Amino acid sequence: MKNTGNSNRHRRHRTTAVVLGLALVLAACGGEASFPEGSFSVVANTDIGTGQSRLQIGVIGPEGERLGSPDEPISVEVANSAGEVERYEAEWMWLIEDVVGLYKVEADITSTGIWTISVIPENGPKLEPGQFQVLDPTFAPSVGDVAPVAPIDTLATKPLADLTTDPEPDEDFYQMTMEQAFSSGKKSVIVFSTPAWCRSSTCGPTLNIVKDAKAEFPDANYIHVEVYTDINAPGFSPTLEFLAPSLGPDYWNLPSEPWVFVVDEAGVVTARFEGSLTTDDIRESLG
């Protein structure tokens, strides 16, 4: 007569072993890969200095498509030229809500030169690494620099339509010169953007984030500087010929757009955001 109790136990043991084996295989594979084979990573911002620096990281697919989402978490390894590596958990940041975004990390950048980033998806293999250059000094003012007092037009000198390409402008952003703002004893937020001609399509969303912040932090000064001047003049085109002087090398020396700077009560830069920022960024800078 067969010992059915032992037989059942053996079957249960074999079944448990199979289940555990499958679990280990799935864990090793990590499930379906977050990004298709051939995807690679790039650092989207260019004016990166030493110290605590924000890296904005894009994931590009094999056909040039922009990938990533809040549901596809990644970590990032950041390595200097000596091969010393720090690993960071990245945060997703929408550039245009529910359309396109980037990952960001606040990295400790200790030296100038060529650095390397490697994106590590939660599922799937590490992506092809990308490189970025660390500058000293940076082109645009860095945290701790005195904010340049550039000449700008306001509603006292030009009509609103000549000051901005924002389709829904807030007049409060065109009341003060930089000299008035930086000597007011208040914090100031300066937005350099061109909603109509932005190369990255993020100028309008970035300006809107700062406009929304004004309701939460009404005691600060807010200034929007349109990237181009004479925007309604005959023959205007969004070229260097019409670049606003405040963006040039004599003042803010911006290599790209958009930019947002926070300046403290003493006229010193306390935060800088190239390309884009989030509502939490502006809260942390003004809170």
Give a written overview of the molecule.
This protein has helices at 4-29, 178-182, 203-216, 279-286; strands spanning 40-43, 48-49, 51-60, 66-67, 74-79, 85-89, 91-96, 100-109, 113-121, 130-135, 188-193, 221-226, 259-263, 269-274. With 287 residues, it is of the alpha+beta class. The chain folds into two domains: 40-135, Immunoglobulin-like (Sandwich), CATH 2.60.40; 160-286, Glutaredoxin, CATH 3.40.30. Strands 1, 3, 4, 7 and 8 form a five-stranded antiparallel sheet that branches. Strands 2-10-9-5-6 form a five-stranded mixed sheet, with no helix packed on it. β13 (259-263) and β14 form a beta hairpin. The relative contact order is 0.14.
Q: C-alpha Rg, in Å? A: 25 Å
H/I helix tally: 4
Roughly what percent helix? 10-25%
Number of β-strand runs:
14
CATH superfamily of the largest domain: Glutaredoxin
Shape label: globular
Which regions are unreliable across 5 or more consecutive residues at pLDDT < 50?
1-30
CATH architecture of the largest domain: 3-Layer(aba) Sandwich
Structural class label: alpha+beta
Q: What is the name of the CATH topology of the largest domain?
A: Glutaredoxin
Compute the separation of the termini in Å.
80 Å
Quaternary organisation: single chain
Name the average pLDDT.
89
Beta-strand percentage range: 25-35%
Largest sheet properties: 5 strands, antiparallel
Order of helices and strands: HEEEEEEEEEEHEHEEEH
CATH class of the largest domain: Alpha Beta
Number of spatially distinct domains: 2
